[in-house]
């Protein structure tokens, strides 16, 4: 039986989802979400939802604490800063929304198809599932209802049960415990390799755009896969693997050689991720600046000959910078056009993130 409060709660969640959908573009650009990464639930402020509440009195502006005076008068009675406001304020409600739920809304609103993983039956994970009861086990797994019924039945059958003074005493033979079995669960595992140019032309504004884009890429892929690993590569003229925190904070002042990152990504995949068992996603973020046209062409050759046969998707996201040349995306279009696994997007402002996510995942790869 569904209680009324459960119905009300479900209705409230539908209202919340509707509000998030209405302002999805704005939610995609909220920098404060970045501090909540790694949590299952995040708090989101939503305007326009008022929690039902009791309102007392007849709203005639009289009652305890009113006394003489007009709205806006100073408490001391001396002077004041102006009349009190007469307009309603906007109601802001903080609601907790799961990252899975946010990703679901993102997918529905952008009409993103579900990703069909490869290698999904090759990797398995062990999971314990409670499947019955037995007469031995730890006390923490004791099944109270079954134990109570067995003790009650025994006392009734033996004539020890007194309905006027009911008292159930458990004996060892009454106790029942939950039993479990270990099952193998097929896993669909994926790895996301993020690469970013950290040379002098990539400033804090560009890195914030990258962080927001990476947040939603991560959220959508985690919705589609049971197991996700993330690897982070930064580069100027040389590339190196770093942790997540360093990835978004490091800044160098040297030049740029993009091919160094592509070579390192190739090594990571070769040593750790068999393409038959892993769904591999490669994303590169830069302002389009590179040391030379020849290095840009070398990147495309590395992609075509070594990386693309292994990848589900290569996404190149070019962020706007006053100091970058912005030419790398043109080289990618010239040398890798027509390949389904290669997708590019331009993100000049936060508002472009919505369309960028749709570009990367609308094909369902």
Question: How would you describe this structure to a colleague?
Answer:
The protein folds into three domains: 1-51 and 91-109, no CATH class; 125-184, no CATH class; 188-361, von Willebrand factor, type A domain (Rossmann fold, 3-Layer(aba) Sandwich). A six-stranded mixed beta sheet has the order 7-6-5-8-9-10, with helices on both faces. The chain has a two-stranded antiparallel ribbon with strand order 1-2. By secondary structure, it is of the alpha/beta class. It has helices at 4-22, 24-28, 99-109, 144-158, 204-224, 244-249, 259-272, 293-307, 328-336, 353-361; strands spanning 41-47, 92-98, 123-134, 177-187, 189-197, 227-235, 239-242, 279-286, 313-319, 342-347. Helix 3 crosses helix 5, helix 7 (259-272) packs parallel to helix 8 and helix 8 (293-307) packs across helix 9 (328-336).
How do the strands and helices of this protein lay out in sequence?
Layout: H1 4-22, H2 24-28, E1 41-47, E2 92-98, H3 99-109, E3 123-134, H4 144-158, E4 177-187, E5 189-197, H5 204-224, E6 227-235, E7 239-242, H6 244-249, H7 259-272, E8 279-286, H8 293-307, E9 313-319, H9 328-336, E10 342-347, H10 353-361
Parallel strand pairs: 5-6, 5-8, 8-9, 9-10
Antiparallel strand pairs: 1-2, 3-4, 6-7
């Amino acid at each position: 039986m569904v209680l009324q409060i459960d119905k009300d709660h479900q209705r409230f969640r539908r209202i919340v989802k509707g509000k998030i959908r209405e302002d999805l573009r704005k939610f995609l650009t909220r920098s404060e979400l970045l501090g909540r990464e790694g949590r299952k639930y995040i708090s989101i402020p939503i305007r326009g939802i008022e929690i039902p509440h009791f309102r007392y009195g007849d709203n005639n502006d009289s009652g305890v604490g009113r006394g003489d005076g007009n709205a806006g008068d100073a408490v001391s009675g001396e002077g004041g800063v102006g009349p009190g406001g007469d307009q309603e304020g906007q109601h802001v409600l903080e609601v907790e929304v799961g990252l899975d739920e946010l990703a679901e809304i993102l997918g529905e609103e952008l009409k993103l198809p579900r990703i069909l993983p490869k290698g999904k039956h090759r990797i398995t994970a062990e999971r314990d599932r409670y499947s019955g009861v037995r007469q031995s086990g730890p006390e923490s797994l004791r099944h109270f209802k079954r134990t109570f019924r067995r003790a009650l039945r025994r006392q009734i059958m033996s004539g020890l049960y007194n309905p006027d003074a009911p008292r159930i005493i458990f004996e060892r033979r009454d106790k029942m415990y939950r039993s479990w079995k270990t099952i193998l669960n097929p896993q669909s595992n994926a790895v996301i390799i993020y690469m970013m140019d950290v040379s002098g032309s990539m400033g804090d504004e560009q890195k914030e755009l990258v962080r927001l884009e990476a947040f939603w890429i991560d959220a959508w892929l985690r919705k589609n896969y049971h197991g996700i690993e993330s690897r982070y590569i930064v580069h100027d003229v040389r590339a190196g693997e770093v942790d997540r925190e360093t990835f978004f904070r490091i800044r160098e002042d040297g030049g740029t050689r993009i091919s160094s990152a592509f070579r390192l990504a190739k090594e990571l995949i070769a040593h750790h991720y068999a393409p038959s068992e892993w769904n591999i996603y490669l994303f590169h973020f830069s302002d389009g600046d590179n040391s030379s046209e020849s290095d840009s062409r070398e990147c495309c050759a590395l992609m075509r000959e070594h990386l693309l046969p292994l990848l589900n998707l290569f996404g190149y996201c070019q962020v706007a910078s006053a100091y970058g040349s912005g030419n790398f995306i043109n080289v990618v279009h010239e040398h890798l056009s027509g390949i389904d696994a290669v997708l590019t997007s331009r993100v000049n402002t936060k508002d472009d993130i919505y369309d960028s996510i749709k570009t990367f995942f609308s094909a369902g790869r």
